[in-house]
Specification:
Number of strands: 16
Low-confidence stretches: 4-27, 230-249, 469-478
Shape: elongated
CATH superfamily of the largest domain: 2-enoyl-CoA Hydratase, Chain A, domain 1
Structural class: alpha/beta
Number of domains: 3
Oligomer: single chain
CATH class of the largest domain: Alpha Beta
Mean pLDDT: 79
Number of helices: 19
C-alpha cells in the first residue's frame, strides 16, 4: 500500500515537469513545420514513370487519410528527366505545402532535383547528394546538346531555389560542370553568399584564389550559416502555392554584390570547382543552408515534425511488378520468350503451348509499358499490324517475304516505341530509341542462339520430337528417322505428306517417316512433296507448286 502511494506521489510530482518539457519541445518546432499526421513516402531505386505515377497515388491516399505533411524518404541513383520533372510539379502544385525531403542515404541526379523541390531538406548522418548533370549512354554529349538538355534542369532547380530560398548560384553547381563558386561571409550578420569569378572580381577587383576548402573543418566562429534571402518559414506564412502572392516570390531575390560591399564581406574559400559537380555531405549541406537537420531514423523525424503519428506509404506490389517488367533485363527475357515460342509453334505446330507462350509474352511486353504510361496508341497499333502481316505471310502467302518483312519491321518499330515518350527531350528520345534497339537486338540474338541449341537438341532426341508432334501426328504413326538418314536422301526425291505441313510436319518416303518443313505454301495430308534441301532440317515443296 505504501509503495502504491509512493509511486502515485512520484507520478504527480513528475507530471508538471513532463508537461512542461512537452510544451517546450512543441513550442521549439516552427509553426510552418509542425504537423499532426506525417506521411512518409519512400522513393528508392531508379526514377521512372512508374515512380511518378506511384508518388501521385500515394500523396492522394495520404491526404485522404488526413496527412498534413509529406516526407519523401529518398534513396536513389537518379533516373529519367521527364519523370523527375513530373514529380517536382506534383510536389509543388499537388501536395500539401509542408513537404520534406529526407535524404537517406543517397540522392544523386534526379534525387537531388526532387529534394530541392520540397519545402525542406533533412539528411541522414551518412547522406550524400548532388551530381545532377544529365548523362547519355551514347557517350560524351556535345556542348550544344548538353546546354539544351541542361536548360530544363537548371530552370527547375532555380525555380526551387527561389521558392525555398536557397542560393541560386549554389544549386546550379549541382547540374553544370564549369560552375566555380566562392563562399563569402558577412562580417556583421554572418550571412553567407556564393559568388562566381565575375562577381568576385566586381567586389574585390582581383582574380579569386583557386583553392578548394573543406567547410566541415571550419569552426562556428569562422562560418555560421544565416539565410541571406529571409527565413523560408516566415515568408511562406499565409501564402498558398497557387496564389498570386506566392508566384511573385519567384523572381530572383538574390542581390548582386558590387565594390561598395567589399568591406562587408570576407572570403571563406572556394566551394565549387570547374572540373567537377557539386556533391555534399551532411555537414556541408547544413553549412550551405540546404539541409535543415540531421535525422537518424523515423522516430527522430517524428520529433522534428512534432507529429502525433507517422505512417509509411510504400509503393504497391503491382507498381513494383510493372516497374520490374519495364526494366531492360525483363524486356530482353520477354523478347526471347516471344521469338522462341513463335519459332517453336511454327516449326512444331499442334500443341498450342508455344502459341500461348508467344501471345502471353507479347501482351506483357506491350501491356506493362502501357500500364506505366510509357506506350501510346500508335505503338500498339504498329505491333498488332506487324503481327497480322507475319501471320498472313505464314498462313496465306508463304514464301513471298513482303508481308513478313513489313510485319517484322512494324513489330520492331512498335516495340522500340515503348521505350520512347512523346514528351521526351531530343537527347532522352535518342536514349530511348538506342535502349529500345539494344533490348530488341539483344533479345533477338539470344533467341536465335537458344533456337539453335533447341534445334540441335531436338534433332538428336527422337523422344522430344515425338512428344512435340504427338498432338499433330497421333500415336500410331511412329517415330521419325534420325538426321544421319535424312542427309542421305537425294534432292528431288518425292514422298507423301503424312501430316499437314504448316509449315512443319511429317512426310513419308518409301517406308521412312521424316520430319520436314514446307518451303512454300502449306501442304495438306496426302499431298505429294518433293525434297528441295537437306541439312539441319528436311525442306520440301508440293510437287504441283
Amino acid at each position: 500500500m505504501k509503495g502504491l502511494l509512493l509511486a502515485s506521489l512520484i507520478l504527480l510530482l513528475g507530471l508538471p515537469w513532463s508537461i512542461s518539457q512537452a510544451a517546450q519541445q512543441s513550442s521549439s518546432i516552427p509553426a510552418w513545420r509542425k504537423a499532426e499526421a506525417v506521411a512518409v513516402l519512400p522513393i528508392t531505386g531508379p526514377i521512372d514513370q512508374v515512380t511518378a505515377t506511384s508518388i501521385k497515388r500515394r500523396i492522394d491516399q495520404a491526404v485522404e487519410n488526413g496527412a498534413d505533411a509529406i516526407v519523401f524518404e529518398i534513396n536513389t541513383p537518379g533516373g529519367e528527366l521527364m519523370s523527375t520533372l513530373e514529380i517536382c510539379r506534383i510536389i509543388k502544385y499537388e501536395s500539401p505545402a509542408n513537404t520534406v525531403a529526407w535524404i537517406h542515404p543517397y540522392a544523386f541526379s534526379a534525387g537531388t532535383i526532387i529534394a530541392l523541390a520540397c519545402r525542406e531538406i533533412v539528411v541522414s548522418p551518412d547522406a550524400t547528394f548532388g551530381d545532377s548533370a544529365p548523362v547519355s549512354p551514347l557517350g560524351p554529349i556535345p556542348l550544344a546538346e548538353r546546354a539544351k538538355l541542361e536548360a530544363p534542369i537548371l530552370s527547375e532547380v532555380i525555380d526551387s531555389a527561389r521558392r525555398r530560398h536557397y542560393d541560386e548560384q549554389l544549386v546550379q553547381a549541382f547540374v553544370s560542370v564549369g560552375v566555380e563558386l566562392w563562399m563569402l561571409r558577412n562580417t556583421t550578420t554572418n550571412e553567407i553568399i556564393f559568388v562566381d569569378a565575375s562577381e568576385y572580381e566586381t567586389i574585390y577587383g582581383t582574380t579569386p584564389p583557386a583553392q578548394m576548402i573543406d567547410v566541415e573543418t571550419l569552426t562556428e566562429e569562422e562560418v555560421t550559416f544565416s539565410p541571406l534571402f529571409g527565413n523560408m518559414g516566415e515568408l511562406d506564412q499565409g501564402l498558398e502555392t497557387d496564389s498570386v502572392a506566392y508566384e511573385q516570390l519567384l523572381p530572383s531575390s538574390r542581390p548582386r554584390l558590387d565594390g561598395d560591399s567589399r568591406n562587408d564581406w570576407v572570403l571563406v574559400g572556394q566551394v565549387a570547382a570547374d572540373d567537377r559537380l557539386l556533391t555534399l555531405k551532411p555537414g556541408e549541406a547544413q553549412q550551405f543552408g540546404l539541409a535543415a537537420a540531421i535525422v537518424n531514423d523515423r522516430d527522430e523525424l517524428q520529433l522534428l515534425m512534432g507529429a502525433s503519428t507517422v505512417k509509411v506509404y510504400d509503393q504497391s506490389w503491382s507498381e513494383s511488378l510493372v516497374q520490374l517488367l519495364v526494366s531492360w533485363p525483363a524486356r530482353i527475357i520477354l523478347v526471347v520468350i516471344f521469338l522462341v515460342c513463335l519459332f517453336m509453334e511454327m516449326t512444331f505446330p499442334g500443341t498450342g503451348l508455344f502459341a500461348i507462350g508467344s501471345v502471353v509474352s507479347i501482351v506483357v511486353l506491350l501491356g506493362a509499358p502501357a500500364l506505366a504510361g510509357m506506350a501510346e496508341w500508335w505503338e500498339l497499333i504498329a505491333v498488332i499490324i506487324g503481327l497480322g502481316l507475319i501471320a498472313v505471310e505464314i498462313l496465306l502467302i508463304p514464301g513471298t517475304l513482303v508481308a513478313g518483312i513489313t510485319g517484322a519491321i512494324l513489330l520492331m518499330i512498335g516495340m522500340v516505341g515503348t521505350f520512347v515518350s512523346g514528351e521526351m527531350t531530343d537527347q532522352e528520345m535518342q536514349r530511348g530509341i538506342v535502349q529500345g534497339l539494344l533490348v530488341i537486338l539483344s533479345g533477338s540474338f539470344l533467341a536465335m542462339l537458344l533456337i539453335w541449341l533447341l534445334t540441335r537438341t531436338i534433332e538428336r532426341d527422337t523422344t522430344t520430337r515425338g512428344f512435340i508432334l504427338r498432338t499433330e501426328v497421333g500415336k500410331g504413326v511412329g517415330q521419325p528417322t534420325s538426321k544421319p538418314v535424312i542427309e542421305t536422301i537425294p534432292i528431288g526425291t518425292t514422298g507423301v505428306a503424312e501430316t499437314a505441313l504448316r509449315p512443319s510436319g511429317r512426310i513419308r518416303i518409301d517406308d521412312q517417316l521424316l520430319d520436314a518443313v514446307s518451303l512454300g505454301r502449306w501442304i495438306e495430308p496426302g499431298d505429294e512433296v518433293r525434297v528441295v534441301r537437306t541439312g539441319m532440317v528436311l525442306e520440301v515443296e508440293a510437287t504441283d507448286s
